[in-house]
Amino acid sequence: MPTKISKPAKAIAPPKGAPKASKALKPLRKSLDSDKTASRFWLTYPPQRIKAPVIWKLGHQFKLVTSIRQASVTDVVGIVCLEIEGAASEITAGVQWLKKQGVRVEPVELSAVES
């Protein structure tokens, strides 16, 4: 038996006086595009820091976007390849913070094939 397709629901109008979506997003896009860079790092966690939400805190305490590219975690050691995106000054501050948390941080050296 064929499925009956209903009419799409009507769109809900925004409240009076609210900015249009395209105007509201323009400042956000501009701020995201300016002075933004991305870097990859190898993070090595000592056993006592493996269960701590270090990457989550990094993204929330600094204006950074994090992306785990590769990871291997055991009870003894945690090794993570982390891509960090944001302003260069925020990345530098974030890396310093990671080191204070007891995490060893080393830059990833990309080969010509990876870039």
Topology readout:
Elements: H1 21-33, E1 36-45, H2 54-61, E2 64-73, E3 78-87, H3 88-100, E4 104-107
Antiparallel strand pairs: 1-3, 1-4, 2-3
Outline the structure in words.
It is a single chain. The protein has helices at residues 21-33, 54-61, 88-100, and strands at 36-45, 64-73, 78-87, 104-107. The model is unreliable at 21-31 (pLDDT under 50). Strand 2 (64-73) and strand 3 (78-87) form a beta hairpin. The chain has a 4-stranded antiparallel sheet. The chain has a domain at 53-69 and 80-115. The chain is 30% helix and 30% strand. The longest helix is centred in the first third of the chain and has 13 residues, at 21-33. It has 115 residues and is α+β, with helices and mostly antiparallel strands. The chain has 3 helices and 4 strands.
Q: Give the mean pLDDT.
A: 79
Class by alpha and beta content: alpha+beta
Bin the strand percentage. Answer: 25-35%
The run of helices and strands is HEHEEHE
Strand order of the largest sheet: 2-3-1-4
Low-confidence stretches: 21-31
Which radius of gyration do the C-alpha atoms yield? 21 Å
Q: Distance between termini? A: 53 Å
How many DSSP-defined strands? 4
Q: Quick one: biggest sheet?
A: 4 strands, antiparallel
Number of helical regions:
3
Shape: globular
Helix content: 25-40%
